[in-house]
Amino acid sequence: MKIEKIAELLEAEIHHLPVGFDKDFKFAGASDLMSDVLADVSLDILLLTGLLNIQVIRTMILMEISAVVFTRGKTPGPEILEAAGKAGIAVLSSRMKLFTASGILYASGMRNFDDEARLGR
Amino acid sequence: MGTDKKKLPRFDLYDSLLYADRVSDFMSRPPITLPPEAAMSQAKELMRRHRITGIPIVDADGRLAGLVSLENLIIALEKNEIREAVSEHMVRNVVCLRDTMRVTSLIECLMTYDYGRYPVIDEDDRVVGVLTHGDVILHVLERLGNVYLHDRKREEVLTPSHYLFNPSSYEPAQTFAYQIDTTDIDRAGEGSTLFKKFLQKQGFPPEDARRASIALYEAEVNVVLHAYGKGRITAHLRDGQLFVVVSDSGPGIEDIEQAMKPGYSTATEEARMRGFGAGMGLANIRKYTDKLVILSGSAGLKVEMMILARDRQPAVVSPERETKAVAPRDSS
Predict the structure, then answer these.
(1) Do residues B147 and B292 make contact, with C-beta atoms less than 8 angstroms apart?
(2) Which of A15, B215, B237, B252 has its CA 20 to 30 A from that of B102?
(3) Predicted TM-score (pTM) above 0.80
(4) Hey, are the CB atoms on B284 and A38 less than 8 Å from each other?
């Protein structure tokens, strides 16, 4: 699923989209705990989180995750956008709650990152 | 006689590594046994097939009646009595171990007696396993290969080991250093992102650089959340081996065993609000490193990690990079 489609489904605002960003996401992960993300994620996914701070971007850089949706209408500030810009990370925000946003993406075919093995990717 | 010479060197180390382990955790089981009426030729066949050197002889209730060793077998062969019952040839006075015995007592026992194998019995005196020196060695190796959990008083014991590095032998350009600001939670993770760039510049394999940075990130966040005063990251890279040390002057970890458990956290509410304190920190570090040493004491905490380049891409820096690395340059 492309970023534009994700934005449309989640009624999200695209704050930053790196030039030439053309990733097609099959997997997503939703968490407010960055340590959980650090523990489990093994591929580039779409990250959904209700957490809004610079550590989200740092976690993404380390995990090589390239797109994030901040939920609950939390709008990223300049510091976050600057860090994301440098790291080539796509940044979106949606007014939806984390649960709803996840549900909508799931219904549209997106799966949790640890379904990777089960789906025989 | 030999017993007198054997001391118990570094008993502390056994104690700290294996204190909770009992004989039943690593004995061979189920035991290969024979009833007293079995023939010596059967014992010979079992030993050959299972490549063992002794068989406990067990009565109808499962209780130990004796033991047939290789020596008994040789004597029976010499005397041409291989068809006779094992009960005629077995040793009756057998040293056996209780399954609940702790490793520390076990080691004392192994030093006192000189046998190759010991039947293990439960509280009803039934034979439940056999313990050989090989079982003990394998178990200790497994423990050593896993994680080292120590406090500072063990430092002396650990220092000569191969996994601790000697900083003086590293070129300055292959060294990464960062001071952790424990007062500003916003900066938590900054060192790790810089570290990842450093590794990329050095040509460390991407997947291993990823593992190393994640482990460091957790350690760095731990320092910010739990330590006060100064924290420090030092890393050295050579020949595809990466050593990272994170030290702080905080309170240390009260119960390391506990802290290693996923989900265990002592983080504050503020930290949790930031998405930290999931209690995965140390568990994650263990997951992403090849060796981990945690030294906790009143002077603070020291986390030492070793990450080996194991990705397919070349682990050693390319010649042109090497020239660059040796040339003096600023640390940015």
Answers:
(1) yes
(2) B252
(3) no
(4) yes
